[in-house]
Amino acid sequence: MDITLIIALLALGAAVGFAAGLLGIGGGMLLVPFITMILAAKHFPQELVIHMAIATSLATIMFTSISSVRAHHARGAVLWRVVKLLAPGILIGSWIGPWIGAQMDSSTLAAAFGIFVAFSATQMLIDKKPAASRDLPSAPGMFGAGGVIGMLAGLVGAGGGFVSVPFMTWCNVRIHNAVATSAALGFPIALAGTLSNIYYGMRVPELPSGSLGYIYLPALLVISIGSVTTAPFGARTAHKLPVRSLKKVFAFTLYSLAAYMLYKALS
């Protein structure tokens, strides 16, 4: 890669790392559109661009999640009991998500990305108050919720926060705890999804040089360096913002990215 591209990817990683720590979204919602632009500019095969952007984004979350969750854990904000209940379903769902994506063409995959993100943003922005008696479901319900979160996250290359944060806040979990717990859930999502993307991607002929399955390794390396550096700063900032402001930042960030990916699907 030339120096200009390296600098651009480092800046992207830094911005995404900060946002991941701030919003608990793993950074994938931000990464996929930008990696799509970069791979398209490098003239990667059009039918592989979206799949590789999603896979590369998901792989970076393994590193961003570890950095972000350390900062949240230091403040006692991660609900580890919730992580343990959701993680088994998440591991299974995160393997299935990339398999579903491998069956879809680029336009359909981009459209699915945009729709899922827009729906999650709407749920957060409406901010409808949950019933005072509503709580997180029992262990079987948490396993099922984890499976859905993992499948959607693996499908669109995200850390799952766009589903898990609204889910937890709807069950009366404080937004700051929901963001912190979502950051911890990003690692099992990314691990299972990355292995799945490598496995299914290795079956694809004529992958570009530097690819491991659907993952583009040079972009993964550079972006991860930038994101790991800034994720703790985002996590610290999250605990200084009022709840309502944090929800608005979360929602409007997702709306802008949903619009871009829907545009890509239609074009």
TrEMBL record:
Membrane topology field: Multi-pass membrane protein
Compartments (UniProt record): Cell membrane; Membrane
Superkingdom of the source species: Bacteria
Residue ranges crossing the lipid bilayer per the database entry: 6-36, 48-66, 78-96, 108-126, 146-167, 179-202, 214-234, 246-263
InterPro entries (alphabetical): TM_pro_TauE-like (IPR002781)
UniProt keyword annotations, A-Z: Cell membrane, Membrane, Transmembrane, Transmembrane helix
Main location: membrane
Family (UniProt): Belongs to the 4-toluene sulfonate uptake permease (TSUP) (TC 2.A.102) family.
Name of this chain's protein: Probable membrane transporter protein
